[in-house]
Amino acid sequence: MRAVVQRALRATVEVDGRLVGALNEPGLCVFLGVTHTDDSATAARMADKLLDLRILRDDRSAAQVGAPLLVVSQFTVYGDTRKGRRPTWTAAAPGHVAEPLVDHVVSTLRDRGATVATGRFGATMQVDVVNDGPVTVIVDVDAARPPSR
User: Fold this and answer.
1) Which residues are catalytic?
2) How far apart are alpha carbons 22 and 9 in whole angstroms?
């Protein structure tokens, strides 16, 4: 599982001109991708990693300061551009595999007390993010490896 995480002052997600999710205060905007080997354990580890990631101001985490998260599913974070000019998406899991795992990340975050907004899985979304810093990191959680601290 892979996430592109931005420290954000605010962010919104629209589908067909309608607001479906928003981050109205400083927090994390998470673009989340799922690969073929991911499972519910991977999703739980990703949720823990996101919540405990210390990239907010003063080296704090969302868990420490109660910062909200906006989670947007995005298979393109698994795009491979090593060959040619056109990315390939073969590393991205198909929707019927990815959607429940994205939902599992969101539910795990909420179970840990986080305020979480989301985009709409599979929709064409317009995402507007005001990146704070700017701070952007890539988080990879491997299904085969336990988390490192």
Assistant:
1) 74-76
2) 11
The residue ranges of every structural domain in the chain are 2-140
In angstroms, what CA-CA distances link 95 with 102, 121, 122, 133? 10, 8, 7, 33
- What pLDDT, in 10s, does the model give residues 10-39? 999 999 999 999 999 999 999 999 999 999
Q: Which CATH class is domain 2-140?
A: alpha beta
**What's the chain's Rg over C-alpha atoms?**
15
Q: Which of 37, 31, 145 is nearest to 97 (CA)?
A: 37
- The structure's pTM equals 0.94
From residue 25, how far is each of 12, 51, 102, 116 by CA, in Å? 11, 16, 23, 12
The beta strands (E) that lie in the chain are given as 2-15, 18-23, 27-33, 69-73, 116-118, 126-140
